[in-house]
Amino acid sequence: MKVESTELRKAGLKVTHPRMRILEILDSQDGKHFTAEDIYRELLDRHDDIGLATVYRVLTQFEAAGMVLKHNFEGGQAVYELDRGKHHDHMVDIESGKVIEFSSEEIERLQHEIAEKHGYVIEDHSLVLYVRPAKRK
Amino acid sequence: MKVESTELRKAGLKVTHPRMRILEILDSQDGKHFTAEDIYRELLDRHDDIGLATVYRVLTQFEAAGMVLKHNFEGGQAVYELDRGKHHDHMVDIESGKVIEFSSEEIERLQHEIAEKHGYVIEDHSLVLYVRPAKRK
DNA sequence: GTTCATGCAAACCCTTTGCAGCCAT
DNA sequence: ATGGCTGCAAAGGGTTTGCATGAAC
Predict the structure, then answer these.
(1) Is A111's CB within 8 Å of B100's CB?
(2) Which nucleotide is nearest to B78 (CA to C1')?
(3) Cβ within 8 Å, pair B129-A111
(4) Exposed site from A78, B15, B37, B68, fewest CB < 10 Å?
């Protein structure tokens, strides 16, 4: 039995064709971030007849199940990535649109320190650097 | 002459009633973050007959002129605040919706270090901590 | 056979835009 | 006077939802 179907069952979701396909696409490229449209078009390319509404519904369910992370970078369109367990933040190259992942334990630590100082506990956080290739000197 | 009108002229914008009023509202509470609707409703309360479209247009112009900062926190609605020159990041209390400002030179420094390490220069960044009041122990 | 999921189109929310009239300069 | 501004209503883009059909269990 495929890994995907186990994942779905674990999340309490029926193993349906759309969910399997979408999960496969999300899993196909590590570190890649997809918009709902990206996935929809990929499905069309594969001649899978799955509606855009279903893509949104499935992504929302995956997010609720903790299988997928959703990010709202600038630009209106949300992007999704498979949650592979290692936390990271993002850098967006504003010239190419490319998304680079990074992580910094030190920043994480400082964030918790700051929240604590204000009497809070961090539930979630979002750190995005909008960057541009450095000019060679 | 009021400070507001000087600000507007400096930005190359005509000194109109809507722009003055919106600027006044933004200036009325330091550290406060407004949605376009917040401002619109505030204007209605003051019996200023200004359309929501105008509020959006004016806020966009203010942002372009560097007078105002726009943030896209979770929840679909953008919030605006007067740019008073001191950079800061945000913490959002997910229970009350309250926005707390903070700043950390150390985090800023680490961000630049990370971007540089990847061959990039930071153009902009967004750091938001979604927090919950700490339980008393 | 039930229950849950899907496709389609319509609805939704926030934001932007076209246009004719109005106001600041 | 004239060019930029405004209000209104309509359009826009991304996302969600209602409903009848269809698939998974």
Answers:
(1) no
(2) C14
(3) yes
(4) B37
